[in-house]
Amino acid sequence: MTSSSTRQFRPLPVPSVTVGGYWGDWQDAVCDHTAAILLDRCVAARMLEQVNPDVPSPGIVIPIIHWLGTPQMFWDSDLGKSIETIAYSLYRKPNPELEARADAIIDMYEKLQDADGYLNSFFQRIKPEWKWTNLRDFHELYCAGHMIEGAVAYYQATGKRKFLDVMCRMADYCVKKFGRGPGQVRGYCGHEEIELALVRLARVTGNQAYMDLAKFFVDERGQAPNFFIEEAIAHNRDPKGVQKNTLEYNQSHLPVREQTKVVGHAVRAMYLYSAMADLATEYNDDSLTEALETLWADLTQKQMYITGGIGPAESNEGFTDYYDLPNDTAYAETCASVGLVFWASRMLGRGPKRVYADTMEQALYNGAITGLSTDGKTFFYDNPLESTGKHHRWTWHACPCCPPNIARLVTSLGSYIYAVADDEIAVHLYAQSEARVELANGAKFTLRQDTDYPWSGKIGIAVDPETTARFAVSLRIPGWARGAKLAVNGQPLDLAVDAGGYVRLEREWQKGDRLALDLPLEPRVLRANPQVRQDAGRVAIMRGPLVYCLEGADNGAGLNSILLQHGAGRVETAAIPDLRGAIAIDLPALREQANSWGADLYAEKAADTEATTARLVPYHLWDNREPGEMLVWLRER
Amino acid sequence: MTSSSTRQFRPLPVPSVTVGGYWGDWQDAVCDHTAAILLDRCVAARMLEQVNPDVPSPGIVIPIIHWLGTPQMFWDSDLGKSIETIAYSLYRKPNPELEARADAIIDMYEKLQDADGYLNSFFQRIKPEWKWTNLRDFHELYCAGHMIEGAVAYYQATGKRKFLDVMCRMADYCVKKFGRGPGQVRGYCGHEEIELALVRLARVTGNQAYMDLAKFFVDERGQAPNFFIEEAIAHNRDPKGVQKNTLEYNQSHLPVREQTKVVGHAVRAMYLYSAMADLATEYNDDSLTEALETLWADLTQKQMYITGGIGPAESNEGFTDYYDLPNDTAYAETCASVGLVFWASRMLGRGPKRVYADTMEQALYNGAITGLSTDGKTFFYDNPLESTGKHHRWTWHACPCCPPNIARLVTSLGSYIYAVADDEIAVHLYAQSEARVELANGAKFTLRQDTDYPWSGKIGIAVDPETTARFAVSLRIPGWARGAKLAVNGQPLDLAVDAGGYVRLEREWQKGDRLALDLPLEPRVLRANPQVRQDAGRVAIMRGPLVYCLEGADNGAGLNSILLQHGAGRVETAAIPDLRGAIAIDLPALREQANSWGADLYAEKAADTEATTARLVPYHLWDNREPGEMLVWLRER
Question: Scanning A55, A321, B1, B188, which has its CA 20 to 30 A from the CA of B87?
Fold first, then answer.
């Protein structure tokens, strides 16, 4: 299914899309609470003492991150992501106080920056002697990447160039330092991130050197001799001494175009593949796209939770064996699903394909947003699909990567809904929103969705060009939507879904054109490939893009005693007021009785059962009410 | 169900019972291989360098045992258990070379012992300054306990008193050091063991001071103010700093008679309860028995795997929540099930009750012996009930507690089969064996079982008194044995099972009296209490005392794709030549087809199924053939 398309789709900039409805509520939560909380907690963690050249260095505050074996040395990344979040939030809700706090941090970084452009508060303030000694473990370029993303967003949001200029100087420094020329380092970062950040920086500045450096980092990765082994030997370290003892951990075991299996640390993998997808689009590089298509199938057909969660193991924060998807111990880091959204959205750069957009939506609604409480104040790091009632969102973490990651995704969501090519707009996600678009072919229009999606499947789309204009509107028809209907200006249309799973409407658009899309949201009963041992004999319920679960708040304790009975009664849906009006699903079920079982732990009998109604709620909203059990994969009779 | 019986049953000494058949094979494996392997690997681990005062001290060889946070400081216990194993093995198979090696180690300990009787190679040779500074964490009395058990066994096996005398001097030292008198320490060990060892020492020496010291340790445990808190404060340590931050970890949270819940480290708990049961018997202490009955129900009705494995969590090597029994991550340490056998056998000290003997048998055949390969050369530490094919027996371990523990249990098995009171012999286990008995009432007889148990349920029992004598023979009728039959001298007997689950035959026994017991071994289908979420919707197959499992060697990969179909065909049994003639069970089943499922990881369909025959083998024999998956709790249609 190699794409040889030369069409290049790029996301709409965040400021071009106003979001309301379901995602508007999430954005409000981040604007009103999360954005400031991120800064508050970064300050409480003593990050600013490390950054601010005017106060004494705090030294190493957290000596060991247990899964990494190094001190906490990547706080710049948390500040970068927090500033990025604040930037996006300022579009939606101007907030002079928050803006001033961000400006103050940017001022510190500007003051801290070395004359040659180098900037990393850990290596400048805490351990100068470690600078550039360990690209594999020390997150040095990773931090630069997140700072660049923050700088790009802050520039776009506020028009202020200071942070962008600071990070351009750091990028210029890197352009000099890394490369294949004499005296340059042929290395790359152990935690990918700088690559996709440089693409963003190149796009906003138009500086091709940044794009080429991104390409260099991606192309060099995994080439022989392996840079990380050479680097370790050069610094008298055991080349197998850390990082889970594998090159797979950071995807440097093979040149990226030869990689066929998704391995290692999940977030690292997603950020790498995101950059590869960006570069495939920018350079029309089919060799990258082919590798990515293989990796995509590997991930989504063998290694992904139904929630779009990825990376089942805590030990490497990443991938294990094919079809190994434990539910109660699922790591499925919030950041990894955020990264999957990044990757999927970038796979759409070479044209609309629902194989990517469907999974982007699945990861967004189930793997990623679950990481944030509805009030925007607490966070999941890992996202199990089963809980005995002890798993809850926390207020902060020694490695606080997930909170700003989900927050920046939420606040930039507009750019994931739409993407544009020269003469086309693709609608990848359905969400109450208004996009203000100007295509390269000159068409200028607004596209407005009116919908209560994901609770309702009815979507009204208003296309209002300033003047009549020819372009295409491509609408995703999700793979799960059987019996979808589309009308144009009230006239039903035969649904001509193309090979990519989109309906492409190319026409002369006029002010007042109206589309009506109806995606049926009947609850669906899904089973896993029989090779997923942990889901054997169990089903998951989905409705539209949402995975559902049983929660103790509705069903009491002992969720594994509940057996769904399909067809034994009516399937009802109901709005839940204390979950933002989310739609619950009520299903007929049996419940095994523990009371009548007796004292024996094991016995030659079946448990008594009693008829009941099982209430399912959207998985991503669990643990927002009273604490209790949770279960996604359910028994059935 | 409090026992106020004043009957005292004690095990027959190991030399009084010759074992053959099934357990004879295991004993041969230990005599021929394990016993020498234990010494070889203790030597390779550098233990003797620590013990031998004539060579330089090796210093701390293993700086940290990760779950404990201390160096490896309990090697004396491994040597003690190894010598105990060797002692028992010498009954069965004299081995001058092995005996000479044990003698040489005993000579080292004799030479090492301080003039005041103190003996512990770690604190004498490596860290004298730590001596008696940390009873909670440092295993000092625990080591003495295992050395005492080894000394008792070696004396009984060889008649040589040297090791016994050495350990009596250490026990005398402890009698002086610990107690409620002026200048004495009112403490006890963080890892129970010394208590049950002192009971054994008292029984073999007749020295009541040892018995009373055991009682002191048990009675003091958990009294307020808590000794371990006081001890930590006295040595300027954080009283909550180690040992999983709980007093429950070592069962010192409450006085033992007030404990109602089985908590903490599983082996510690079992050794404590074993000592409590011994003391309940020796002192006819109903208050201890009552506490033990409560703890017994707590363990066996809420916290025990069907294998008799206990302690599901690796984090504390112990207990977690009621009904929390994960199968694939089950810790279920071999030592813990060995400890459960110890406890259960001692609960029989106040009279035959199958509630204890049935569980003793269950833990013996499924939780404990699984820890040893059939060739006696490799060992399981943890015993999951499900494996994807990566769990295998190892040759050694930084904490090599399990190998000698299962080895000493196997070689002393005769003493678990039978127990005697003044005028009675109880047959708790069925096994090819001959017991030579002299009761306190003067009756002198041999009791011989001829049986292929556990493969067959037919047991012939020959009772041959030297002269006609009156005494009782109590035969356990296992709770699972429906339709058991008994004949005396060819005459069928109405099976009058008493409240404890035994048939008690009190009569004038004559030479040539013959009993024929027939315990039906029909495969049984068991389910777990619905509160065990991990077993929901699944069944386990047992036959007699044996838990069965699916293994990859017979059924290929993907064991969770197999659904048993009760009643869809014949249940067959067959002997497996490459597993010592073990009986396999063949059951009709369906198998979900992964081949025809397609590429989707999740889909709205059920997998195709195909009829098949599932072969089940005894769980304790798994991983003795080619490596592969294993599964105890099976799906059913």
Answer: B188
